[in-house]
Design goal:
Elements (H helix, E strand, L loop, with lengths): L2 H8 L5 E3 L4 E4 L2 H9 L10 E6 L10 E3 L11 E4 L4 E10 L4 E9 L7 H11 L8 H10 L3 H14 L7 H14 L3 H18 L4 H17 L3 H17 L7 H15 L3 H18 L5 H16 L3 H18 L5 H16 L3 H18 L5 H16 L2
Parallel strand pairs: 3-7
Antiparallel strand pairs: 1-6, 2-5, 4-5, 6-7
């Protein structure tokens, strides 16, 4: 934490602060210290250890959970707090032995917290219950955080308990499809989306909106595989489903317009792509909170078009706005934040601003290394970006 931020908090003892992303903590102090000591401390930065008191007997909403059993590193004793949690600042003092600062906080009720709207939006997106999110919803939240391994363990557990005849099976298949798409395992993603589609068509053929959404997801995967013809076929089928359902302004249409824009951008139809990205964004603004991470996806797309056509300032404006949204709504080590930094690095490289490009590529690879396997393509590609730009600076 920067020194001026610490000073601000010191002047706010007894007041409340809110956390604008999911907050990963540990019930083991030594584990937390190990994570903190991995961070390089400079003259402007202070090492901080948050000491949190959270009593489930006092806080009725219980916006936290022990997820140790879901981690491949169960010894980390991970406790997850939801987005928008409010804490009261109790005390702030230095620990000279560890050369850090201790910030003591107490979890408070957050019924009036504005950031809670984002969590409620996620529950609506992923189908969580009104009073307590079910297990699959919890897996969806973990996936939203970029904790793909933990999310997969949850989904596998749900699958063991879920009969193939269960009406919710299609939704579970959908979650698997999204998971493997995020992992860039597109063949497995296609298999799961197709299972979801087959089940939905067989059991609920009248649910045209959900079926259209699945066709859109399959189209998105074909886009990732650079199969534009198959992607376009899927998008056209999705559009037909939405029209038949009289749902041309449904939130799912935002994803469809985004996919269509991507195909148009790949085919160098930049004006059409820009129009469809904007259509998608306009629909999102009607249905989502202003800090919802899906908004950032369209801003990135618009930024890509402006970068390609040489309007670099407009591209930068959209990339930075997207990054601001993701920082507010996602955990700090989420791969999407890394991807956003990589986009900004690419833009600076295009502008031949080597120093700034290198800075953002390094930010990206630091997050990627912490959130993805080292052999994953995003990691190796960004390492190549760093090497390429570094050679240009010699």
């Amino acid at each position: 934490m920067y020194a001026d931020e610490l000073n601000t908090l010191q002047n706010s003892i007894g007041q409340f602060i809110s956390i604008n992303s999911f907050f990963s903590t540990s019930s083991d102090r030594d584990t937390a210290l190990k994570f903190m000591k991995r961070t390089t401390i400079s003259n402007d930065l202070r090492g901080i250890l948050f000491d949190i008191e959270a009593d489930p007997r006092v806080v009725k909403s219980k916006p936290f959970a022990d997820i140790s059993s879901l981690s491949y590193f169960s010894q980390e004793s991970e406790i997850l707090f939801m987005v928008g949690c409010i804490f009261r600042l109790i005390n702030i003092y230095p620990d000279d032995k560890e050369n850090i600062w201790i910030i003591k906080m107490q979890l408070a009720e957050n019924n009036d917290n504005e950031l809670k709207k984002l969590f409620d939006q996620l529950k609506a997106d992923y189908g969580g219950g009104e009073n307590e999110a079910d297990l699959k919803f919890f897996g969806d939240v973990l996936q939203h955080m970029g904790k793909y391994d933990s999310a997969e363990k949850v989904y596998i557990d749900v699958r063991k308990k879920c009969s193939p005849d269960d009406t919710s099976y299609a939704h579970l298949c959908y979650s698997f499809g999204v998971l493997y798409s995020n992992r860039k395992d597109f063949n497995r993603s296609l298999q799961w989306f197709q299972r979801a589609l087959d089940r939905k068509i067989r059991t609920e053929p009248s649910d045209l909106i959900y079926i259209g959404g699945l066709y859109c997801c399959i189209g998105n995967v074909y886009m990732e595989k650079n199969d534009f013809n198959e992607a376009t076929k899927c998008y056209n089928t999705a559009m037909d489903c939405y029209k038949r359902a009289n749902a041309t302004n449904h939130p799912f249409m935002a994803s469809l317009y985004h996919g269509i824009a991507r195909t148009q951008c790949a085919q160098k139809q930049y004006t059409n792509a820009l129009n469809n990205y904007q259509r998608s964004l306009d629909i999102q603004k009607q249905h989502l909170t202003s800090n919802h991470p899906d908004m950032a996806t369209n801003l990135i797309g618009i930024g890509d078009v402006y970068r390609i056509v040489g309007q670099y300032q407009l591209a930068m404006s959209h990339y930075t706005t997207s990054l601001e949204i993701r920082i507010k709504s996602l955990p700090p080590q989420h791969p999407d934040i890394a991807a956003n930094n990589k986009k900004i690095g690419l833009l600076y490289e295009t502008m031949k601003n080597w120093k700034e490009a290198l800075e953002y590529y390094k930010k990206a690879v630091t997050i990627y290394r912490q959130s993805l396997p080292l052999q994953q393509a995003s990691v190796t590609e960004t390492e190549k970006d760093i090497h390429r730009v570094s050679s240009m600076m010699k």
